[in-house]
Amino acid sequence: MYHELGMPDRKPFLDEPGYTRYVVPESDFRQQLRIMKESGMRGLSVGEALAETHSQQPGVVITFDDGCETDLLAAAPALQSLNFSATFYVVSDFVGQPGILSPSQLRALSEMGFEVGSHSKTHAYLPDLDPNRLRDEILNSKDRLEQIMGRRVEHFSCPGGRWNRAVAEMCREAGYRSVVTSRIGRNSSATDRFRLRRVVVQRNTAAQSVLALARGHGLGLLQARQALLDAAKNLMGNSIYERLRSAMLHTE
Ligand SMILES: [Zn+2]
């Protein structure tokens, strides 16, 4: 799971530590892809991975959240040069804002052959919403993105990774074929397609670590830390949890 890529002479969409620690420099991203390619790995979109029955060659699904302009300017050419595909999850109400893909850029990304999914309408945390607003986030964003691109939008990514059963059910009803979360782990053919796991790549993640994570190595430790944070959230409530989370994450 990637977010915005960092490009020289370009300010990130938001300039705060909670955001910029997810901004991977473009040159690092290229190196990460190269290492995966050299190890014999393919880069796949979510739809491609779901369609595979069995494969001889190892693959990793590459996703981007938030629909930043660098999806088209930096990620797409890097992926294309290695014949990798990927899925880009876009927030429909953000389209056209400064730093975010414009409608024509979104069409260009889609016409390059990349898969575009929805990352909701406004980036609201979905489990907090009543059914009407939930429907609006999930359905309206799909319609809007489909109107812009003239292609079907079949995959959904939960803002902030926040997921619950109602979100999954609403996505299924709306015609999506998958939902990704931020729950850490690998997916198999037995994994619930409406609750797929991902692993975030951060600004300081080394290329060799990205390769290891793509192979599913070292996920146990990350899962344990996530479980600890989840338990802390339930015990403490959200505001103390947010402080603990940022303290833990900034020790990396
Ligand atoms: Zn997001």
Please describe what this structure looks like.
Strand 6, helix 5 and strand 7 form a beta-alpha-beta unit. The chain has a three-stranded parallel β-sheet. Helix content is 44%, strand content 11%. 35% of the residues are buried. Helix 6 packs across helix 7. The protein folds into two domains: 213 residues, Alpha-Beta Barrel (TIM Barrel), CATH 3.20.20.370; 35 residues. The two termini are 18 Å apart. It contains ten helices and nine strands. The chain is of the alpha/beta class and 252 residues long. It is globular. The structure holds zinc ion. The site of zinc ion has 5 residues, from strand 5.
Quickly name the level 1 CATH class of the largest domain: Alpha Beta
SSE string, helices as H and strands as E: EHEHEHEEHEHEHEHEHHH
Could you give the order of strands across the largest sheet?
5-6-7
Tell me the strand percentage band. Answer: 5-15%
C-alpha end-to-end distance = 18 Å
Radius of gyration: 17 Å
Bound molecules: zinc ion
Largest sheet: 3 strands, parallel
The helical percent reads 40-55%
Shape: globular
Count of DSSP H/I helices: 10
Could you tell me the CATH topology label of the largest domain: TIM Barrel
Mean pLDDT rating: 92
Domain tally? 2
The structural class is alpha/beta
Low-confidence stretches: none
CATH architecture of the largest domain: Alpha-Beta Barrel
Oligomer: single chain
